[in-house]
Specification:
The chain is α/β, with parallel strands linked by helices. It has 7 helices and 10 strands. Helix 6 links the parallel strand 7 and strand 8. The two termini are 22 Å apart. The mean pLDDT is 88.
Amino acid sequence: MLELVDVSKSYESPGGAEPLSVLKGITFKLEKGESVAVVGPSGSGKSTLLNIIGGLDRPSTGRVLFEGRDLAELDDTELAHVRNQDIGVVFQLHHLLAQCTVIENVLIPTLVEKGRTSKKEVEARAIDLLRLVGLGEHILHRPGELSGGQRQRVAVVRALINRPGLLLADEPTGSLDADSSQNISDLLVELNRREKVAMIVVTHSQALAERIGRVMELDRGRLKNRSGE
């Protein structure tokens, strides 16, 4: 499903100094339905890596292949389509619209490309997923009426509404208390099993990482299996 080939990312430094190298020669494969946790110290480039995989940023060198397509060869419209339909993203902050209800927030990604699925079908899927995450009685509530953990669950459902093949989660439990973090961890594991969605989870939580199928570490710009292989 996903392959990174010798991906590097550098940023220009002011005053003619050497460019800042964030990612260095990363080669990586992810199969359909597989889940991977990426751990590493703050500033190691974990979010940069997710942004490149999700098409929000481009590598300085190397290739990112998603379902056989090189993301660098897609124009802005094609890339936006991939991000909307094929790759779901969950951030540390939920980014829900305060003026919209829970179900309206979930359905936002379906408004971009109308006609692919009927309104009735996508609404039924939204309700099914919200019930799965324990929010069936909150579909008409607004984000301000929910706890932090509940808002993050809405964000996860929103990321899955278009049935993406890949879910990217950037510190999904980073701003939550212990109980809410446990609930989100349970949810991600369950959704990987039920939805068969491939998953890359960036996290500082060792408890969450250990529940993911494979753990990889990003350190000084290089990605390796936790075992060091």
